[in-house]
Amino acid sequence: MAMSDWREDAACLDQDPELFFPISEVGLGAEQVKRAKAVCATCPVQQRCLDHALQQGLNHGVFGGATPQERRLMPAEARRRAG
């Protein structure tokens, strides 16, 4: 039996993907980031999503409840744990 992909359990699966890719983190973009993070906060695979973004070096989008800037500011230990 094949192991299921963790993404199949993601809270964002039925959301508009554009919600997680705001143009900026200020103005209207800040509200969009807030809404995306609210979805992430309810997600059963939030940590796996964040780990994936860190492993892949994703520089755009909200993943695991963190913006690209927040991921860049994470301690090296978190990035190593993800890898």
What does this protein structure show overall?
- The longest helix is centred in the middle third of the chain and has 14 residues.
- The chain contains four helices and no strands.
- By secondary structure, the chain is mostly helical.
- Helix content is 45%, strand content 0%.
- The chain has one domain.
- It is globular and about 35 Å long.
Properties at a glance:
45% helix, 83 residues
Gist?
By secondary structure, the protein is mainly alpha-helical. 45% of the residues lie in helices and 0% in strands.
Q: How does the overall form come out from the CA principal axes?
A: globular
Biggest sheet architecture: none
Percent of residues in helices comes to: 40-55%
> Taking all residues together, what is the mean pLDDT?
89
Secondary-structure element order, as H and E? HHHH
Number of helices: 4
Determine the N-to-C terminus distance. 26 Å
Percentage beta strand: under 5%
Structure class: mainly alpha
